[in-house]
Amino acid sequence: MSRTPSNGTKASSSNGTGTGTAPVRTLDDLAALSGVSRATVSRVINGGPVSEATRRRVQTALEGTNYRPNAAARTLASGRSGVVGVVMHLDPHMLFRDPYFSQLLQGMSDALSEQAIGMMLWLGNRSKEETLDHILWMGLLDGVIATAHEQEDRLVDGLLASSLPTVLVGHRRADPAASYVDVDHVHAADTITTHLVTIGRRRIGHITGRRGTVAGEDRLAGYLRAMRRAGLRTDALIVDGDFNKASGTAGALELLDRGIDGLFCANDAMADGALEAIRVRGLRVPDDVALAGFDDLDFAAQLDPPLTTIRQGVRQLGTEAALTLFQLLKDPAGGPRRVILPTELVIRQSTVGGVQRA
Amino acid sequence: MSRTPSNGTKASSSNGTGTGTAPVRTLDDLAALSGVSRATVSRVINGGPVSEATRRRVQTALEGTNYRPNAAARTLASGRSGVVGVVMHLDPHMLFRDPYFSQLLQGMSDALSEQAIGMMLWLGNRSKEETLDHILWMGLLDGVIATAHEQEDRLVDGLLASSLPTVLVGHRRADPAASYVDVDHVHAADTITTHLVTIGRRRIGHITGRRGTVAGEDRLAGYLRAMRRAGLRTDALIVDGDFNKASGTAGALELLDRGIDGLFCANDAMADGALEAIRVRGLRVPDDVALAGFDDLDFAAQLDPPLTTIRQGVRQLGTEAALTLFQLLKDPAGGPRRVILPTELVIRQSTVGGVQRA
DNA sequence: GCCTCCTATGAAAGCGCTCTCAGCCTAGGT
DNA sequence: ACCTAGGCTGAGAGCGCTTTCATAGGAGGC
Question: Is the pLDDT of residue B15 over 70?
Answer without folding.
Answer: no
